[in-house]
Amino acid sequence: MRTIPTLRQATFAAICATIAPTAAMSEVPETLILKSVPHDVYLTVHTTATTEDDFIEEKWAGVWDQVVESGVIDEAMTTVASFGGADAAEMTQMGDHVRGLVMSVDWATLADREYLYTMRLNKDSLHIEERAEGVSINGGSPEMVTILRGSNSAENFEAIKKIVTELAGMTGGQVVLSETPKAIGGYSVLELTDGVSDRALLTLGHSGDSIAIAITGAKLFEQMATNSGTSLISTRRFKSAFDKLPTPETEMVFFDASRMTDGLEEVFEAVMKAAEPHFGEDEASQIAMVKDLVGRALGEVRTFDYVATVGHVEGRKQIKSEVTHINSSRDGIVSRLLNSTTPLDDPLQYIPSNAANFSASAGIDPNVLYQEIRKLVDEFNPGGLAQFDQIMASSPVNLEQDLLSWIAGGQISMSMSGPGSSNSAMLLRVKDEAKAQASVGKILDTVNMILESRRQGTFSRTPSSLGEGFEQVTHPQMAMMMITPVIGTSNGFYMLGTSPNALKTVMDTKAGTVDSIRTNDKLMNTMPDLKGETLSVSWKDLSNFGQETAMALSMGSMMGGMALAGQPDAPPQVGKLLGLLNKVAPIVSNINFLDSQTTLATRDGNYRMKTKVTVYKDN
C-alpha cells in the first residue's frame, strides 16, 4: 500500500537527486500515465505500488499514526498560532476545522496504485504586460502536474475539492474556483484562477481512478490529459539514461538538468528582453554584468547532463540506484573540480571489523577550489586579492602554503565499538607526509600562542607509543574529559584518533593483523560490488536509530530549557514547543525496525554511479 509520507519522500529525493549507481540494461515500465508525459519536461517522478515493499509502508505508517494519535501536531499548531495573539478557544475551533478537512481525505488510498509528478519550465509560463508605468512581469515558475491513481479516487477528489474551496474563500476574491467543471481529455476539471487575469493557478481533474493536481501547469496538464505530442519515455535520451540501471520496480526518477537549464535561460532572456527598454543608460553596465553572471552560472549547471534513479526491493533490502551523466564538453569551474578528484584506493582495507559506522570519500583537491576562487576574486575585485595576499604574507600561518598545499582531498572516518569503550579515527589523504607534520605543528604552535595570551591553557605534544611520526596531544580540558587524542602520518594519510588504541587498530587492519570490515558478514551482505573507481562508500548501523534519536530529542529539550531559564523575556510558546520534544521522543524510540544502510558511489568515465541499500530487520 502506497502512503503519502513515502510520496513526499520520493518527490523530495527526486528534486535533490544528484549522483548515481550500477546495473544491467533496464526495461522502463510503460504505464498509461507515464506515456502521457511530454518530452520537454525536466523532472519526472514515478512510483508504483508493489507487495514487496508493503512491510516498509506499514512500519513508517505505524510511526506516523502514533504521532497523530499523540496530539503533538495539534499542540504544535495551537502553540505556533498563539504567537499571533489568537486565544486558545479560537485556536481549538480552527484546529478542529482544519483537522476535519485534512482527515476527510483517505491518504492511504490516495495513490495506492500509482503516482506521477512532473515539472516543466519555459518562457511560455511568463505573463508579460506593457503598462504606462513600465512592464509587468508575472509567472516564470515551473509547471507542476501530479497524478494520483488510487482505489478511492471519487471520494478523495471531493474531499480535496472541499479543501481547495475553503482556501479560495479565504483569499477575499483574489483567487476564484470555477463553478462549472469542464472536460479535458478524459478528465472532469475544475480550476482555481487569478481573480484579475483568469490565469489558472491550480487545476483539479478526475477521471476513473485518477486525480490530477496541476499547479500553474494548466497547459502541461492539458497536453498530458490529451496525450498530445512526443512522449518522454519514447525518446532515445530517456531510454539511454536507464541503460546502466536495474529494472525499476517501485520508483523511477528522471531529472534532466540540461533541459531545466535551457528553461531557466529561456525565462531569463524573455524577462531581460521585456525589461531592457525600461532601463536607464546608466544601468547598462549593471545589466551586462548580470547577464554575464547568469550565463556563467547556467554554464556551470550544464556540467551535469541528467540524473536517473530507480528503486526496487529484495527481501528486507530497499535498494535505490542512481546514475548521473557528466557533460564532458563543458570546461568550467565545476568540471575542473570534478576532474580534480582522485578515486579512493580500497578504503575498506583501513576499516576494522568492529567498526560501528564508517564513511570514506574521495572529495576534491581543496587547492584546485582555492585557485578557482582566486581567479574569480581577481576578476571581480583585484584589489581585494592583493590585500588578502598581503595579510597572508604577514600571518604566522599561510592558508595556501601551510594547509592547502599538502591536503590531497579525500578522507576516511570511523567509529569502533569494543568492551566498555568506543574509539573513533579520521584519516585525511595528503600529498606530503613530512610537510603535513610540520604544518600541523606550526598551526598548533600558533594556537598555543593565542591560548597562552588569553591564559586558557595550551596544547602539549609528547611522543606516542605508536612510534615515529605520531604524537599525543593533550590540553587541560581534554584531560578532565579523559580524552587522549593522537595525531600522525602513515600510508599517505594524516591520522587523528581519539586514543592510541584507535589508530593502532587502523594500522593493524591495514597491515592485516586485525580483521577488516570485509569479514563482517552483516556489512558485506549489503555492500554493492566495488566495481570501477570508488568515489565514496559508507555504512551505518541503524539498529539503535530510534533510541539514539529519542535520546537526542530529550537532550535537546533539556538543553533548550536550560538556555531559556536565563532568558526571562523569551515567549512562553518557545518553552512549550521545546517541551513537545519530550512527547515525540517515546514515539521515535519505537523506530526499531531499521538494521543498517550502505552507500557506494563510483565513477565510470563520464558517469557517476551511486547505490544505497537500506536493510530492515526481520521482525
Mean pLDDT: 84
Number of strands: 23
Report the major sheet. 21 strands, antiparallel
Strand content: 25-35%
Note the overall shape.
globular
What is the radius of gyration computed over CA atoms, rounded to a whole number of angstroms?
29 Å
Q: Helical residue percent? A: 40-55%
Distance between the termini: 19 Å
How many helical stretches?
20
Low-confidence stretches: 1-26
- Find the structural class using helix and strand composition: alpha+beta
Structure in words:
- The protein is α+β, with helices and mostly antiparallel strands and 619 residues long.
- The protein is 40% helix and 26% strand.
- The protein has a 21-stranded antiparallel sheet that branches.
- The chain starts with a helix and ends with a strand.
- Residues 1-26 have low confidence and may be disordered.
List the main descriptive attributes of the protein structure presented here.
619 residues; alpha+beta; two-stranded antiparallel sheet; 20 helices; 23 strands
Task: Write the SSE topology.
Layout: H1 4-16, H2 32-35, E1 43-48, H3 54-70, H4 72-81, H5 88-103, E2 114-120, E3 126-131, E4 134-139, E5 143-149, H6 153-169, E6 175-177, E7 182-184, E8 187-194, E9 200-207, E10 210-215, H7 218-225, H8 236-241, E11 251-255, H9 257-275, H10 284-301, E12 304-314, E13 317-326, H11 333-339, E14 355-361, H12 366-380, H13 382-394, H14 399-404, E15 407-418, E16 421-430, H15 433-453, E17 460-463, E18 470-474, H16 476-480, E19 486-490, E20 493-497, H17 500-511, H18 521-524, E21 533-541, H19 545-565, H20 572-588, E22 594-604, E23 607-616
Antiparallel strand pairs: 1-2, 1-11, 2-5, 3-4, 5-10, 6-8, 7-8, 8-9, 9-10, 11-12, 12-13, 13-23, 14-15, 14-21, 15-16, 16-20, 17-18, 18-19, 19-20, 21-22, 22-23
Helix pairs in contact: 3-20, 4-5, 4-20, 9-10, 12-13, 19-20
